[in-house]
Design brief:
Strand content: 15-25%
Largest sheet: 3 strands, mixed
Structural class: alpha+beta
Number of strands: 5
Radius of gyration: 17 Å
Length: about 130
C-alpha cells in the first residue's frame, strides 16, 4: 500500500477518538486538515484500512457503520436509541460457549460480540410510559 497523507490523517483521526465515528464524522474531521478531500476518498480509505486489518468496522442497528482503531478482540455495546458505540472490556473467552462453536462447519478466524441496549443517558431520559 502506497503512503498517503490523507490516509494517515484518517488513521490519526480514528486513533484519537473513542466514539467510533461514522465515515461522515471522519470526513468532517479530516476535512479540517485537507479541505479538498472528498467523501469518496474517505470511504475508499476506510474500506482499504478495514481490508488490511488496520482498523475495524462496527455495524450498528441503524445501518451506519462505525469505525474503530482498536483491532484487538473486544466487545462493543451499542445503544439501540442513539447508536452510541462503546468499547466493553470483557474476557472474550468467557463470553463464547466453545461447545457451541464446535458445531460451526468451518474455521473461525474472527468473532465479534455486539451487545445492544440503552446507554445510561438514553435510559435516564426515558419516562415511565416509554
Amino acid at each position: 500500500m502506497n503512503y498517503s497523507r490523507q490516509r494517515e490523517a484518517i488513521i490519526s483521526c480514528l486513533a484519537n477518538r473513542k466514539d467510533h465515528p461514522t465515515a461522515d464524522m471522519v470526513f468532517e474531521s479530516v476535512r479540517q486538515e485537507f479541505p479538498k478531500i472528498s467523501l469518496g476518498t474517505v470511504y475508499r480509505n476506510l474500506t482499504l484500512l478495514c481490508e488490511t486489518g488496520d482498523i475495524m468496522k462496527v455495524a450498528t442497528v441503524k445501518g451506519f457503520d462505525r469505525f474503530d482503531y482498536t483491532t484487538k478482540p473486544h466487545c462493543h455495546f451499542i445503544c439501540s436509541e442513539c447508536s452510541q458505540v462503546t468499547d466493553v472490556e470483557a474476557d472474550m473467552e468467557s463470553l463464547i460457549n466453545k461447545k457451541e462453536l464446535k458445531n460451526i462447519p468451518g474455521i473461525i478466524d474472527r468473532t465479534d460480540i455486539l451487545v445492544y441496549g440503552l446507554c445510561h443517558e438514553c435510559s435516564d431520559n426515558r419516562t415511565p410510559n416509554d
